[in-house]
Design brief:
This protein is mainly beta. The chain is built from 2 helices and 32 strands. It has helices spanning 2-14, 299-304; strands at residues 28-31, 35-36, 43-47, 50-53, 57-64, 75-82, 85-92, 103-109, 135-136, 145-148, 160-167, 183-190, 195-198, 206-207, 218-222, 227-235, 239-246, 256-257, 267-270, 274-276, 279-291, 319-328, 358-359, 364-365, 370-377, 385-392, 397-401, 406-410, 413-415, 420-438, 458-463, 480-496.
Length: 497
Amino acid sequence: MLLRFTLGAIATGLLLIDVRSLRAMPAVEIGSRLELWVDRLLIDELNGTTLRLHEPISAGIALRVDRPWEGPANAPRSVFKHQERYLMYYRAMTADPGDKSGRTCVAVSRDGLTWEKPKLGLVPYRGRTDTNIIADTAGRELAVVPWLDTRPGVPADERIKAFHSEAVSGESHTPFFDPKGAKRLVMFSSADGFRFRRLDQQPRIVSDLKNAFDGGNTLFWSEAEQQYVLYFRIWDEGRSMARMVSRDFIHWSEPTPMQYGGTPREQFYNNQTQPYARAPHLYIAPAARFMERRRAITAEQARAIGLHELQGHRYDQDVSDVVLLTSRAGSSHYDRTFMEAWVRPGMGASNWVSRTNYPVTGFVPDGADRMMLFIARHYMQDTWHLERLQFRTDGFSSIHAPWAGGSMRTKPLTFSGDRLVLNYRTSAAGGVRVELQDQNGAPIPGYAATDCVEIIGDEIERVVQWKQGTSVRAWAGRPVRLRFIMKDADLFSLQFK
């Protein structure tokens, strides 16, 4: 009874709103797409509620260094699902002086939990033929970043692609860059994800921006934009990102440096930008934030953990973690909704060295209610490994209400569909009610908060119900607002279906 009184009081009396003060604003068209609370596009007012970032939890070590062609300089590449199996790629690199760039290796899994390093035998290593090193058609090892091309109609033997960067030596194959000092991306393709051939017709992906393509590049087919999108590293007041697009994969736009909305500038060593599969108009980027010359461990601690040097470079001078950048299809802007870390380094000196805690590109499902990502730990140490992290489906962040309660109201929006579906969780004492309002903020008869059947529990998909039923079809296509009255609860996403 206390909960019902509290929610009802919030709905009808505690949060009085002068509808005359509502700002006239255009409606945001969301149709039937899933919307996550990773930015403020839909949010008009937060009253006693906040946007809360949710850090993933560890699910143990997925991959360790255990082969002679691997080493402390291993680094993450990409992970994706293809033909009922998961493929995980990583750079295998020792600390030997002659090992300049390493080689790309692959691990395979049927469930995303247990990983095996297949004995491909494509590239021998010091007499060993049981290697998991991927190769080109001539049997040479590759140092590339594989990715899955999801564009409809792509030939099967080009579905898995890979790229690496190389210097452009006096060529003039692109009309809008002086090739002096420029770099380009070179593309390969594969039918099985193990043996790659260099594409006969190379895309014209060239840039002479400072630091262009120097690691941390991601490329994908955008369902929302109906074109290929590339995010790559540049130098812009430090390590930053730029964006290029192409509809045919051959001809590419000029690069556009990404903007960060006036937030304090930080350095991002890589961006890992990918469309979120459940909401492909939203691009999620778990970026490696690089804190240059911010030292966390002593020289004695570095010796104790066995920190290697590589080509004369020390790795106890900087630290890094993972922040959550987001963008929307077609935008050259990253939202810094959360300045705090999404994945912190964690306990132990081994995680507080330079260029560690870098994520693998890609999210993969872990059942219906969880997602996985992978992160590299213990860089330049013999204990280097990839850790598996889990987070709730859609659970990057939420609208959070404390025990005292609060509300959130959206901007005017238009939708298509018949029902409103929420991804939410409450405590045993908490709850959520939803009010449908007209554009001016007045409750729509039959859809007021007091008409809403209180939502209690923890579900990925819960259909909102009012006394009159679940249908909201009568208001589809018309500007409405949603008001959520919440107590000790989190709202992760919404969708009209």
